[in-house]
Amino acid sequence: MRPLGASNDYARVSMQAPLEAAPARNRVRLLAISIFAILLLLAGRAVQLAFSGDPLARPNNAHAAIALPRADIVDRNGVLLATTVRAWALTAEPARVRNVVETADVLMQHFPGLQREALLRRLNNTAQTTVYLDRGLSEEQRDRVVALRLPGIGAELEHHRDYPQGVLAAHVVGFTGIDLNPQAGVELGLDEQIRAAGAEGRQVRLSLDVRMQYALEAELDAAARASHATGGAAILLDGRTGETLALASWPAFNPNEIQRSFESARRDRVSGDLHELGSTIKPFTVAMALQEEVTTSSELFDLSQPLELDNTMIADHEPITGYATLRDILTHSSNVGAARLAIRLGGARQRAYLDRLGLTQPTTLQLGRRQAPLAPPAQTRRDIAGLGFGYGLATTQASLASAYTVFTNNGARVAPTILAQAPDAEIVRTPIFTPDVTRQVMLYLRAVVTEGTGRAADVRGLVMAGKTGTAEKPGGAQGYDQSRNFSSFAGVFPANDPRYVIVVALDDTGAGEAGGLVAAPVVARTLRRIAPMLGLRVEPDRAAR
């Protein structure tokens, strides 16, 4: 008979259970301690990264900085103008080269651009651990070097600056040296910004429009060749913002082939070359005289006779018969009339206006070469008169274009820039003339194009205004050479709602090649091409009868 109470088997189990539970609890405790330790280590690691950064990330960041030593440069619409690409350098360790002559022969078979004497000299230069034999190799050329298996010869990774548009906008963009050191253009003028943008992985956006740039360069090239000029310069501005929409120098060069170009072709002639401005300065002389109330729009002048000043005769090429107005002075480009107004104004006031117009300072364009003007103070009445019609002050075409922005801003000047401006950017405007004076002179400039020396710049439907300029170049027995001219045209359009400024100049044109004959037509042809890009309408020329 089984006694009341727990069975013996149950009793045995009950008695053994506490003995087995102890190891289980120990395992749980150990697991909990392990998890806590892991969490503690992770927390410590997070603190370390917060203060010191991830050491594995540092090489990656360093590699990214090296990969973008210079930012891409694009035009206002995002068209690529300059970029940094991977390239290779052909290198040699002279101490490891077994047979210098044989090595040189093999290399020249695969790289015919190498010069044998220079190659042998470098391969024999055992004083150097590594020497460079060629730079800017492509990936395919690098693979060819490796396949040759020449002792001591190798290829080293480097970076190379590439200009996808070639000659287009070359004087604006500029170029860099072998080690990406800037040499010209915005590459030099915006060097700090380009490096900073490269480090941040963003682009540098210029105000240029490559469509307008192409049109301006093509027309300047054709005109320079036709007139046998030695150089040419042209610039197109949005006169209200100061943005440079196109800028061209002639002759052209390819920044991808610097070694094949001449220094004369690489010269930026818009912001780097100085020339006396000739008659393109006369509108400012008239505006100064009106502003200072030394004349009025209704005054009549007798300009039929030359003006004698300090034993110098100032005369007009085609004297105006009868009485003339301020409008006639500009329309017929009278030196005598401009000289008389300048004398009334006086040297001090004249200089103050020239300073505020920006004609006596280097341009603000962010280019590598910004030449300071030759602007000596006027000492005599002859000097003052000469400045009044364009002699005695040598400056750049960029500065002249900046001065003409007064006609697009009701008498205030805007400094030009090569960088694209944000729509809400604050534009600094320097007041110089009153709106009334500015509008009055604009009417005269419109008459220059419709009736005067600038008729070749007229474009039907565009309402063009502007002024021709022809300055004899220094040289010859009389101080100037009548057979060599600097011919130009400075214009504003549309004249009924002025916004854009264009300046075109051709250097070293022959006798009789005045600005109205060689520069003004370039303006007309260029504007017919780019007007639709600016949202402006032009009308077809009337058919000849």
TrEMBL record:
User: Which keywords describe this protein according to UniProt?
Assistant: Carboxypeptidase, Hydrolase, Membrane, Protease
Q: Where does the source fall among the domains of life?
A: Bacteria
Q: Which GO molecular function entries does the Swiss-Prot or TrEMBL record give?
A: carboxypeptidase activity; penicillin binding
What is its subcellular localisation?
Membrane
> Is Protease set as a keyword in this record?
yes
Q: Name one GO biological process term.
A: cell wall organization
**Record's GO cellular component terms:** plasma membrane
Any idea where the Penicillin-binding protein dimerisation domain is? Answer: 69-177
Q: Which Pfam families match?
A: PBP_dimer, Transpeptidase
Every copy of the Penicillin-binding protein transpeptidase domain together lies at 232-526
Name the record gives this protein: Penicillin-binding protein 2
